[in-house]
Design goal:
The complex is a heterodimer of chains A (700) and B (274).
Chain A lengths: L1 H34 L5 H22 L3 H6 L2 H6 L4 H29 L8 H19 L6 H23 L11 H25 L7 H30 L26 H7 L12 H11 L5 H6 L3 H6 L2 H10 L4 H4 L9 H6 L1 H10 L1 H12 L18 H20 L3 H21 L3 H22 L6 H10 L5 H4 L2 H16 L9 H10 L2 H19 L31 H9 L5 H27 L6 H7 L15 E3 L4 E4 L21 E4 L18
Antiparallel strand pairs in A: 1-2, 2-3
Helix pairs in contact in A: 1-2, 1-5, 2-5, 2-6, 6-7, 6-8, 7-8, 8-9, 10-18, 17-19, 19-20, 19-21, 20-21, 20-22, 21-28, 22-28, 24-26, 26-27, 26-28
Chain B lengths: L1 E10 L2 E11 L4 E6 L5 H9 L6 E6 L11 E5 L10 H12 L7 H6 L12 H14 L4 E5 L7 H18 L2 E5 L12 E6 L2 E7 H7 L1 E5 L8 E7 L2 E6 L12 E5 L2 H13 L1
Parallel strand pairs in B: 3-7, 3-8, 5-6, 6-7
Antiparallel strand pairs in B: 1-2, 1-4, 8-9, 10-12, 10-13, 11-12
Classes of the chains: A mainly alpha (700), B alpha/beta (274).
Chain lengths: 700, 274
């Protein structure tokens, strides 16, 4: 009999392979014709193999007694001398072997055909693979009709899908199946299927041929009787375990809105919000505008309600016409349109685009006027309520106007209006320093840092223009103080970002809570504080690490902040807080290391700018540059990326910091913040090349 | 050979046996009979081990060896072999499964069943003969036959019955038959078991049953024990009496007739239906 079963299993396996090739060929053709003509076979094949494996597993189980059912030989089978147990064993053994062989082949295939993702990793795959087989075996005697069986199979698949989708929210991305909670759900499914299978085996011994369905129902009933109570106890224990939440990970991190609505117009932040309002509005007197932003920023209003219903895109649309016009005017000046033009010698590009910039100034008069008022404010206090759905000011408008503002300063300097350039740029940098220090939302904070870096580079450009007066250098030294991490760091933004995540957890903004079952799961298996803790950890680490200059970071800090791994800790991590883990895994988190690098980049640029300014004041044209640098007060500052003095490359004519890669690249600039290369500040020397220093050509 | 002691078995919403006991004796040919739905087929399946009693025990004689089911063979018109197999494949499968060393069946030769033809293509009677040949190869000591004769033509039927007779006479096989056609098996069976309402109503040797069961004709209707059926036919009454003992009629004028098995069973069944 075993030989017959081996033969049947072999036939079935070969048949599956045959069907696989036919289905793959036709399905791929169909996908290419109907869905996407460029759909790559390398992506299609793994998915098909995966589906085939699951289908094979199910079919192998459901066909356990197919021969007997089709040929009505069941009674003959039972009349043979075997015991029921041996009969079942003879049937199952070849199938188990075939299943194992297929799994091994699948593994080998995944090793040789990289990338060949096994969704969910091997634990999830094997659990689902075996669950389908065991469940199918349990159903193998339920109905004699293939159609009915296929309906059962479809129902089983849908239930599996629903459990995965509702419990993990990650069903659409197969590579995310490897997460802990997915494994947990998969193992649970396996246990349920195994329970049904054991029930089936127990009742097969006393099978009633007249009613196969009853066998299945008996199996389930038996499973419920023998295993239901322990499972119920375990479920209750699991729920109780998840009642013991951790303590609030950051009780001291609070950030209540502290607006002073009587002084809206004194706050640069308020002007930032109103910057992109319709040009025909007088934002400082229009009650509609004032009310709109008070509702968002004034704690006396129901902030949660107005934050929730703020129409971000409607507000953004008011700026769209100007943005289109701006791009039309600047057409042909691709250099100026790049997101951040940080080239120090960009004065040539700006003077070339003079006409376009002046025309843009006329078109932007209202916005520039509003921006001037923003820069004129004594304070820049971010009043944004740290909520998950807190809207942002129009950052695009901010970047557009800030860049135009800096271009106009360069043009003023190039035209000899040094005082105007000095006033504009220093006011700009002072305002931006306040914006960096006080901005709450991380995105606003990063844009403020970017604009500040652009403004500091603009100051360097102006210093390198012919005839830049001494008073400009003195003004820089006087009004741009030495930078430190307290002023340019991201602590406030990190805390606000965490608090927004905490709001996300507390108010159940995650999509799981859109469904009643999801809400029930959330109520039973979500630990708020522990989940907040997963997210708190990287921010707390980032704040602590930011206080240490990068050159003192330990080697293993290189990948710090990219992932947060605390959710995998503890003895019971795999059953603790599954919904929280799922929510935390799907919550996007910024690479905080690069945010910290941006803080130190700013500090380095400020230092280099001050060294450059002091150098110009002290340069007598004869003293060697290196000697002169040693005497400068500003040069005593240490490069945060090397712990030593800033570098000078006479051949390139640049002062430089080692930059985030910590390597001395001799002033070879870094185009991207985290990439190889140095942070540089070109210094155009006003001296005869034969008297102690070169005067390098601009790096255009 | 097989002792069923107070067994109970029921299908969903239908009880078949409750507290049912019966012994099948070695070398005896037993007819199990009763009205439709009384559980005759179920009883054979319980004896064969295809069904298991929900209560009570079925004890097999030690003579059947450590694997009693290997020595019990069931053949039924409701039972199919693997019909996609050829005869040769089925023989190979059955002999391998049952541990039969050599297979040589005169029965198949007589029935002309050889070659590579598929079982599916055989007639019902041929399938039964083929199945019987397979079962005989394992030399069973108990043969359970469930309603098969009516499916066979005259030639196959004779072949089948001759084979059964040989088995009883030569190998002392215990035979248990469920059949509703009694003429042809009357020469084979020795014991009749009639089941009524899940219990044994009659359990008698065939000769004793024939001796005890009589048709008594009388001008008047005779009351009293033993009359299992009485019918008025014109100017007289026809009584089926069991057990009939001489003098049972008293001083009445009667005529006593003997009955064949068919008439006896029909009388019992008629009584039940009435």
């Amino acid at each position: 009999m075993l030989r017959k079963e081996i033969s049947d299993t072999l036939k079935l396996s070969v048949g599956t392979v045959f069907v696989f090739f036919i289905v793959v060929a036709y399905a791929f053709l169909l996908v290419r014709l109907v869905v996407d003509a460029e759909f790559p076979f390398s992506e299609f094949l793994p998915l098909m193999v995966f589906i085939t494996m699951l289908g094979f597993s199910f079919y192998l189980g459901i066909s356990l007694f197919a021969e007997e059912k089709n040929q009505r030989a069941f009674e003959y089978l039972l009349s043979l001398r075997f015991t029921r147990t041996r009969l079942l064993w003879n049937k199952l053994l070849p199938r188990f072997v075939a299943l194992s062989a297929a799994a091994v082949l699948y593994h080998i295939l995944s090793l040789f055909l990289r990338p060949f993702p096994v969704p969910g990793g091997w634990i999830v795959f094997l659990a689902v693979y075996m669950s389908l087989f065991l469940a199918a075996v349990s159903m193998s005697l339920v109905h004699r009709s293939h159609i009915t069986t296929m309906v059962y199979a479809l129902a089983l698949f849908m239930i599996t899908y629903a459990i995965f989708a509702l419990f993990t929210m990650q069903f659409q991305e197969l590579d995310l199946w490897g997460h802990a909670e997915v494994k947990f759900v998969a193992v649970c499914l396996f246990l349920v299927a195994a329970t049904a299978f054991i029930g089936f085996c127990l009742h097969f011994r006393r099978m009633d041929l007249g009613n196969m369905t009853r066998l299945f129902l008996r199996s389930v009933g038996s499973a419920a009787r023998y295993l239901g109570l322990p499972l119920l106890v375990l479920l209750i224990a699991w729920i109780v375990l998840n009642r013991f939440d951790a303590r609030d990970p950051a009780p001291g991190w609070t950030m209540t809105p502290s607006g002073s609505p009587q002084a809206d117009q004194d706050n640069g932040f308020w002007h930032l919000w109103t910057l992109s309002e319709r040009p025909d509005l007088d934002v400082e007197s229009d009650q509609q505008v004032i009310l709109k932003y008070r509702r968002l920023l004034d704690p006396r209003f129901d902030l949660d309600r107005y934050v929730e219903h703020y129409e971000y895109w409607t507000n953004k649309a008011t700026y769209r016409d100007y943005a289109k016009k701006r791009n039309t005017i600047l057409k042909g000046h691709a250099d100026l349109l790049s997101p951040w033009d940080i080239r120090p010698y960009r004065s040539t590009a700006i003077t070339t685009a003079r006409e376009a910039i002046l025309r843009l100034r006329r078109e932007s008069a209202v916005y520039l006027d509003r921006y001037d008022r923003m820069l004129g404010c004594d304070r820049f206090e971010d009043l944004t309520a740290p909520r998950f759905k807190s809207p942002l000011p129009n950052l695009l408008a901010w970047m557009h106007i800030a860049k135009l503002y800096n271009w106009l300063a360069i043009l003023a300097a190039a035209d000899g209006r040094w005082e105007e350039a000095e006033a504009k740029l220093l006011a700009h940098s002072e305002c931006l320093r306040k914006a960096v220090t006080h901005s709450r939302l991380l995105l606003v904070h990063l844009v403020a840092k970017g604009i500040l870096a652009d403004t500091l580079n603009t100051l360097a450009v102006v210093m390198n223009l012919e005839g830049c007066p001494e008073r400009f250098f003195r003004a820089i030294l006087g009004r741009i103080p030495e930078a430190n991490i307290a002023a340019l760091g991201s602590e406030t933004a990190f805390k606000a970002d965490y608090l927004a995540f905490a709001d996300y957890i507390e108010k159940r903004h995650f999509s799981l809570s859109d469904h009643w079952l999801g809400r029930l799961l959330g109520a039973l298996f979500l630990q708020e504080n522990r989940t907040k803790g997963y997210l708190h950890r990287p921010y707390a680490d980032a704040i602590a690490l930011e206080k240490i200059p990068p050159h003192r970071w330990k080697t293993n800090a290189a990948d710090w902040g990219k992932r947060y791994g605390r959710s995998r800790q503890g003895l019971l991590w795999w059953i603790q807080n599954p919904v929280g883990k799922s929510v935390a895994d799907t919550a996007a988190i910024t690479n905080l290391r690069s945010v910290v690098h941006k803080s130190y980049n700013l500090i380095a640029i400020v230092d280099l700018l001050r060294i450059s300014a002091e150098f110009r004041l002290r340069d007598d044209g004869t003293t060697p540059v290196e000697t002169l640098l040693e005497d400068l007060t500003a040069y005593r500052r240490k490069d945060p990326y090397s712990g030593r003095s800033y570098g000078w490359n006479g051949e390139r004519g640049v002062l430089y910091s080692h930059g985030p890669d910590l390597d001395d690249d001799r002033g070879l600039r870094s185009y991207l913040p985290d990439r190889d290369g140095d942070l540089i500040l070109p210094v155009r020397l006003q001296r005869d090349p034969g008297r102690g220093g070169a005067n390098p050509a601009p790096e255009e | 050979m097989i002792a069923m002691d107070r067994i109970a078995f029921s299908y969903p919403r239908r009880e078949i046996f409750n507290d049912f006991s019966l012994d099948i004796r070695a070398g005896e040919a037993t007819l199990i009979t009763g009205v439709n739905g009384e559980g005759k087929t179920t009883l054979l399946r319980l004896m064969a081990g295809i069904l298991l009693p929900q209560r009570g025990t079925i004890v097999y004689d030690r003579a059947l060896g450590p694997e009693p089911r290997a020595k019990i063979a069931l053949i039924s018109d409701q039972m199919n072999l693997y019909e996609d197999m050829s005869l040769a494949e089925a023989i190979r499968f059955h002999t391998t499964t049952c541990g039969i060393q050599a297979f040589d069946s005169p029965l198949l030769r007589k029935a002309g069943l050889t070659g590579t033809q598929k079982i599916r293509r055989l007639s019902k009677g041929q399938k039964l003969i083929f199945h019987l040949a397979l079962l005989l190869a394992s030399q069973p000591q108990v043969l359970l036959i469930d309603e098969v004769i009516h499916s066979m033509d005259v030639v196959l039927r004779e072949l089948f019955l001759d084979t059964l007779l040989d088995m009883i006479q030569d190998r002392r096989v215990s035979l248990v038959m469920v059949n509703l056609n009694y003429h042809e098996i009357e020469t084979i069976i020795e014991r009749v078991v009639l089941i009524q309402n899940g219990r044994v109503a009659v359990d008698e040797g065939l000769d004793a049953l024939k001796d005890g069961a009589k048709r008594v004709d009388c001008r008047e209707k005779i009351p009293g024990d033993g009359v299992i059926h009485a019918t008025r036919l014109g100017d007289h009454y026809e009584h089926i009496v069991y057990p009939y003992r001489p003098g049972w009629e008293g001083d009445r004028q009667i005529t006593v007739h003997s009955l064949n098995l068919h008439e006896i069973v029909r009388a019992f069944m008629g009584g039940f239906y009435a």
